[in-house]
Amino acid sequence: MDMPDIVRAYFEADRRNDSDALAAAFSADAVVEDEGVRHEGVSAICTWWVAAKDKYHHVAEPIKTTGACDRVSVRAKVSGELPNSPATLDFFFTVKDDKIAALEIK
Q1: How many separate domains does the chain show?
Q2: Which helix H or strand E contains 8, and what residues bound it?
Q3: Could you say which of 40, 57, 59, 95 is the most buried, measured as most Cβ atoms within 10 Å of its Cβ?
Q4: 92 is in which domain, residue-wise?
């Protein structure tokens, strides 16, 4: 599947439960929006991600990618202890300087 290396790194870190690799994928001032909540900065993003992993024990498997360069949308099958598992979610990435600057999950 064709996607920027940094987006691929995000999903690989998620699959391996590797918070350090996940943190390294984001720019210092990155923003994540998930479940109606905004998380700003790498520390807040890591806190959100660890809490979500603890709560849902999930993994996201990319199934379709659209867009290119700085705006990429990835549809993923998310399986775990979440309602309606597996669920199909859309991950909207903004990439800047080879880092994830923004991520919105719907």
Answers
A1: 1
A2: helix 5-16
A3: 95
A4: 5-105
